[in-house]
Specification:
The chain is an alpha+beta fold. The chain is about 50% helix and about 10% strand. It is built from 17 helices and eleven strands. Keywords: Antiviral defense, Magnesium, Metal-binding, Nucleotidyltransferase, RNA-directed DNA polymerase, Transferase.
Length: about 375
């Protein structure tokens, strides 16, 4: 996807474009190249680069709200459901290109640990190990709060032309389906309407471009909150919608100050998940205990051991009947996934679990 300035100049001359046009377009191209981004002049040009008929690309933009599937999945804690809006293959193809060729090349804040290559919940938790106080703040309806206008601003900040930036924003956002909005509780919908017009398009939960776009939109939020943390002499990190501060007693910022900054940046705090944990009590950061180094919570490990014990000693079928599960294939993968999660944080502990798991006699 190289830009040949000499060839471009030659073609421009043949088409009798003005020197001013040539200077402006070359400056535009050089600005993108300096950021190691692909040079794209228009939607027509983009359609050529992605090997898609221009009319098809226009149709995708015009009908984008009908190109997503809505469904719900159970949350890890089995408390409620997570709503997912997944793009169909045609628009997903375009989004994958935008993610790989454009968004993945843009640096995010050093304080962002979620959706970042080479970083994980371990990296996020490591920042806050053995601290006297830990403040956890969760952003309310995170992806749903990031509107098309804010996504447009990201592409404009990268240097893309206005019309093209709007097209990219449209290709990566969607109007939430009514079935999705109906899952909001009354108080949630009321709070949500304070920051987003119900008819506005926002980041879809299941699009490949949404995670990196969320990190790019929150760069200024990360800058403001990390600057505050530095001023107060405390630690700060953000894993997607989970914000954490940690430090000595009475040094972490108060909720009112954090709330003002978050509100100013177009987000809201999910107050049901906001808390401060002091040393000597359970301190969790993105699900990991950090009071004494980094560990999987003992309750989680105990649950996994219980499942393995039940399968080994009573048989898989009897154990499934006991816990009222009837999807063997799903259960088998579910249990293995939990073991590998433990392995990613505590490999020595997980090794014995994996050995016992492999001794289980599965029905299929």
């Amino acid at each position: 996807m190289t830009f040949n300035q000499e060839e471009f100049t030659k073609v421009t001359r043949l088409r009798n474009h003005s020197d001013e046009f040539l200077d402006v377009t070359i400056q535009y191209a050089n600005n993108l190249l300096a950021k190691k981004l692909p040079v794209i002049f228009s939607l027509k040009h983009f359609s050529i680069l992605i090997n898609m008929e221009f009319e098809e690309l226009v149709r995708i933009i015009d009908t984008r709200n009908y190109l997503y599937k809505f469904y719900q999945i159970k949350k890890k804690n089995n408390k409620g459901f997570r709503q997912i809006v997944v793009p169909y293959s045609n628009i997903r193809y375009v989004q994958n290109y935008i993610k790989t060729e454009i968004l993945d090349k843009v640096p995010v804040s050093e304080y962002a640990t979620g959706f970042v290559k080479g970083k994980s919940i371990y990296n996020n938790a490591k920042v806050h190990v053995n601290q006297q106080e830990i403040m956890n703040v969760d952003l309310f309806k995170f992806f749903d709060s990031i509107t098309e206008k804010r996504v447009y601003a990201v592409f404009r900040s990268l240097g893309y032309a206005k019309n093209l930036a709007w097209d990219f924003a449209k290709l990566t956002t969607v109007k939430l389906p009514e079935a999705y909005l109906n899952t909001f509780k009354y108080d949630e919908l009321k709070l949500y309407s304070e920051i987003v017009n119900i008819n506005e398009c926002v980041l879809p939960q299941g699009a490949p471009t949404s995670p990196i776009l969320s990190n790019l939109v929150t760069r200024r939020l990360d800058k403001r909150l990390s600057s505050l943390a530095t001023k107060l002499g405390v630690n700060y990190s953000r894993y997607a919608d989970d914000i954490t501060f940690s430090g000595n007693y009475d040094q972490v910022p108060n909720f009112n100050l954090i709330s003002k900054i978050i509100d100013d940046e177009g987000f809201r705090i999910n107050w049901r998940k906001a808390k401060i944990s002091k040393k000597g009590r359970l301190q969790l950061v993105t699900g990991l205990t950090v009071s004494n180094d980094i560990h999987i919570h003992r309750k989680f490990k105990k649950e996994v051991k219980k499942h393995i014990y039940g399968c080994l000693n009573f048989g898989v079928e009897n154990h499934l009947n006991h816990i009222e599960k009837n999807d063997l294939g799903f259960y088998k993968e579910w249990l293995l996934g939990k073991i590998y999660f433990i392995y990613s944080i505590e490999p020595k502990y997980a090794k014995k679990l994996l050995e016992d798991y492999n001794k289980i006699i599965w029905l299929i």
